[in-house]
Amino acid sequence: MDKRLTAEQALNHIWITKGETANQSHEGSSSRKVIERMSSFVFNSRFRTEILMILVSHLKDSELVENKKAFYKFDTDFSGSIDFDEMVKTLDNEPTKMTRSSMTKLYNAIDFDDSGEIGFSEFTAASLADDHLSEKNLKSIFNYLDRQRNGHLTPKGLVSHFRLMGKKLSAEEARAMFDEVGVGEKMTYERFADIMTQ
Length: 198
Ligand SMILES: [Ca+2]
Ligand SMILES: [Ca+2]
Description:
Elements: H1 2-14, H2 26-39, H3 46-58, H4 65-74, E1 81-82, H5 84-92, H6 100-110, E2 118-119, H7 120-126, H8 135-145, E3 152-153, H9 155-164, H10 171-180, E4 187-188, H11 189-197
Antiparallel strand pairs: 1-2, 3-4
Bound molecules: calcium ion (2 copies).
């Protein structure tokens, strides 16, 4: 709860809203929504980001039409990734302005694997809509992670799940991910849903 307020307050700080004109196209305002959602990504915990990345890999193309449209608005050379210059150029063209230093922070937060570029999955994880975070989707991701079906997630369970996905995660990192979101040993679905929808 607190985190959400902080994010919203900071967001108001980042954006100098010029107001939308009545004749602004639907596409313009829908991509602006994507950008607004994206801009709060700076405040994400690692746990939430990791789970969003998993969620993205489970979504169908048909559920990501809006995200794809927005992605190609940024990826102007159609290389399949967004570099920092592309991000700056696209955001500079928006009716709302963001400072360079906010852009850098945002870019680094979305470039979750530190590859120096924002790929489609990273972009999408950062710009998911409330619909994508429906109870149905969250329950299915939770059940997917709760492989022992005992109703909670643990740092240890996360480590073994990551190993299955071919991703490295040390016990210390998993522990730190739980600590960051204020969870001890066991994360229930309710807590999980809370973290994911904040
Ligand atoms: Ca590109
Ligand atoms: Ca990347």
